[in-house]
Amino acid sequence: MTQRENITDILCIGCQKGSTSWLHSVLNCHPATYAFPNSEPVTSTSKEAHFWDWNHERGVNWYRALMTPPEPQRLSMDFTPEYAYLPDHKIAECKAINPTAKIIYILRDPLARAVSAMKMHMLWHFGPAHDQPLRLDETFFELMGKARLDPHGSFVRNWSNWKKHYDDILVLNYEDFHNDRAESVARVMDYLRLDPGDMNDAGRERLDGLMARRVWESAPFAIDREVLLFLHGYTWRTRDAVSGAFGIRFSEGDQMLAA
Fold first, then answer.
1. Which residues are 173's β-sheet partners?
2. Is the pLDDT of residue 92 over 90?
3. Ordered DSSP codes for 165-188
4. Fewer beta carbons under 10 A from the terminal one: N or C of the chain?
5. Domains, the chain, with CATH or none
């Protein structure tokens, strides 16, 4: 059998809490894409292979075996947000084994993304029954470190590091999945050269369901105003940097501050 050009054809490098799971589900409706088998806890569901962080020591042959589709012409997908801040030598390794891969990077309002990440880590730390608001205390700063807010949120720096190796990176605004979902999905499909007309009835039905529902559905989350203002100060430089680099204007964080 002829070896495929890429081990992974579609790499989504984040951002964390940027609806990567929703986009993965959307693309998985198309018969030309391939999601590897759920291999938890080695991988995270059928979405995140975590090769360059959790599983690098398993070797390239392990990654190839995991990602190779039963039909060679299908496009394999790895949506692992931790890839966004890989060091240069690992991005170079990615380029060597995935020379023509398509790279997708979803950017979310830095404040809203940070709040969502902190919520996730707070729930992991305390459990779902915890009903106390997030406060600016020792626990907050402990969880802030575990959430890796800086590496996950350094959008322009991460993009620049990947751009050294991949010229054509599709940068998306998370808010467009809410404001103009059809156009955003069409843009992704066009970038990946996926023809929606090739979808069968079952795939079309799944896609229609995903397009009709809310991208995110999260329970109310209590957060002290002091924490919100702290995170706003922590992330505003990223917002300015994204605006300068990509012309993206976020509004989600403004809405949170105005509430």
1. 107
2. yes
3. T-S-EEEEETTHHHHSHHHHHHHH
4. N
5. 10-258 (3.40.50.300)
